[in-house]
Amino acid sequence: MHVTPSAVSHQIRSLENFLGAKLFTRRVGKVALNSTGRGYLPVVRDALGQIEQASERIVRGSSIDTLTISIAPAFA
Fold first, then answer.
1. Beta-bridge mates of residue 33
2. Which of 9, 23, 27, 70 is a plausible cystine mate for 37, CB 3.0–4.6 Å?
3. Angle at 20 between CA 16 and CA 21, to 5 degrees
4. Model pLDDT for residues 25-48, shown as the tens digit of each residue
């Protein structure tokens, strides 16, 4: 993934700050999901799976819905 451990730690801390809850138990040389993280994981995993499926449908061209977004020139 070409992401440093420091960058991952920073993103995890940012997420924990946003949520207002710790997701991991940190000990010297060890990081593990705590009970909050274990509850959060399946929901996030499902959401990411849905994003992946939607992306695959678009890439394969099997998406039959079209979304057209337009704006009046006065607002452009």
1. 24
2. 23
3. 65
4. 999 989 999 999 999 999 999 999
